[in-house]
Amino acid sequence: MIEDRGGRGIPARFVRLLLLASLAGCARPIPPPGGPIDTTPPRIVAASPADSAVNVERTGIVEVLFSESMERASVRDNVRIYPPTNRPSFRWSGRRFRVEWAESLDAGTTYQLFLSGRARDLRGVPLGIPLMIRFSTGEALSPGGIRGKIRAKTLPTRGVPVLLLPASLGLRPDTTDAFEPVYQTETDTAGVYEFTGLPLDRGFTVQAFYDRNGDSYVDRENDVVAGYGAVVRLTPERMVADSINIVAVDPRAQAILSGTIASPDSSARFVVEARAAAESTVVARMERKGPGPFALRVPAGTYRLNARRLAAVARPTMPARVGAAARGEIPEASVALPDEIVVGPEDERGPFVLTLPPAPVPAPEPAPQEESR
């Protein structure tokens, strides 16, 4: 038996509770050569106590049997107990993982063992589906529940950690402070999450966390914390809060300005530009032959949108003579929207129509006059 009694309980800092050990830098073992690569995710074969068990002894022993040998560090670092308890210890016996406590659990309390889907087997294949075991040292599970969905355009919605924080921390908690979530889960393949077995007469905020640089800390420059816009309070009259949906927006994502260049000059070349209103510098530019649709990607900001017909030399259809129009030149022309366009991350604005006047038609060459004799 291998025992880990290194005091690896619930970490003190918020973010170390979020994205756990897949981010801890544990090296993945290299699979042995020969044969097909194993891509089958491990499974939970058995668990004791079973999910939703009641009247569980307060000695607090939880066992999980996996379908195959696991990378033990990834399991240890991805497992959490809620509400947080003091100094759990972890033991292994083959494929069997055990969690124990030196002190008795509280009476009449619903506990949850959460194992992230990031826990992986010896070949580095993740569990994929998180494990949640809810059990009570009393006669019934706590009846509270919160359900919802994460909606996002550019950010992922599958396997996103969703956390419940005390309402006392506010809707936008300061991630530089040391605090702990009180419950945690992950979204499924459809971006749906669910908490059950929650206590009543409590207020929670619901937060989704994206650790984009994988360092287990909230980095304001890279990571994203998206929350539900109100405190969720569970009471005997409202034991389950449904449709607690979170819209996750990537603050670094670009916006899209789209529209159409309208012109009768089907063979001319056109340029459409988005210029920053404050500095008049070109932020995005697209060139196309002939009129038609355009789409520009720009960072959040304020822009002026304009289109130009580039000057060109038309095919000669008559003898050349002095003068731009007579030489068949298409002069440059431009048009700009009168109003500035303000966009935020992931915004899609349009369609805008930029109409350019037709190029002037060259005057016909006068017929030569015969000399009088």
Query: How many individual β-strands?
Result: 27
The residue ranges in which pLDDT falls below 50 over 5 or more consecutive positions are 1-28, 320-326
* Radius of gyration based on Cα positions: 32 Å
Shape category: elongated
CATH topology of the largest domain: Immunoglobulin-like
How many independent structural domains?
A: 3
Summarize the helix and strand pattern as letters.
Answer: EEEHEEEEEEEEEEEEEEEEEEEEEEEE
Helix and strand content put the structural class at mainly beta
CATH class of the largest domain: Mainly Beta
Task: Describe the protein's architecture and organization.
The chain has 373 residues and is an all-beta fold. It folds into three domains: 1-139, Immunoglobulin-like; 142-251, Immunoglobulin-like (Sandwich); 255-355, no CATH class. The protein is 2% helix and 39% strand. The chain has one helix spanning 72-78, and strands at residues 2-4, 44-48, 62-66, 79-82, 88-93, 96-101, 110-115, 131-136, 144-152, 161-166, 183-186, 192-198, 202-210, 224-227, 232-234, 240-241, 246-248, 255-262, 269-276, 282-289, 292-298, 301-309, 312-313, 329-330, 333-336, 341-343, 348-355. A five-stranded antiparallel sheet has the order 1-5-6-3-2, with no helix packed on it. The longest helix is centred in the N-terminal third of the chain and has 7 residues, at 72-78.
